[in-house]
Amino acid sequence: MVKLSKQLPLVALLLAFTVFVGKAAVQALSTSSTTMWSYDPSKGPATEPGSYDPAPGATSGDCDRDEEVCLVEAPELNNQPDLEAVEDLIEAIQAGDDHPNLTYGAFSSN
Predict the structure, then answer these.
(1) 94 sits in which H/E element
(2) Which domain holds residue 52?
(3) Mean pLDDT of residues grouped by 10 in the chain (110 residues)?
C-alpha cells in the first residue's frame, strides 16, 4: 500500500501529460482539416483560390444544379482554399469533370 501511494503522483503527472498532448494533437488536426468554400464568380476564375469564400457547414444541397462551380472542399492556406493540395481538383475544375471534392451549381445558402 505504501508503494502505491508513492506512485500516485507519478500516475497523476502521466495522466496530465497525456491530456495535454491529446489536446494539442486535436488542435493540430483541426487546423489542418479541409473546409468547404463557395465560389464567387465575381472574384475571378474558379481555378484561383481568391475566388472563394469560406462556407462552413455548406453541403451539396446548398447548390442549385448548374454547370458552374459551387463548392470545393480543400484545406485552408492563408484564408483561401489550397486547391493544389487536392489531387486533380484544378484539372477537374478546368475540364468541368466530376470530383469528390467539387460540387457544381449556383450557391444558395439557406
Answers:
(1) helix 89-95
(2) 34-107
(3) 64 60 50 79 95 92 86 95 96 95 83
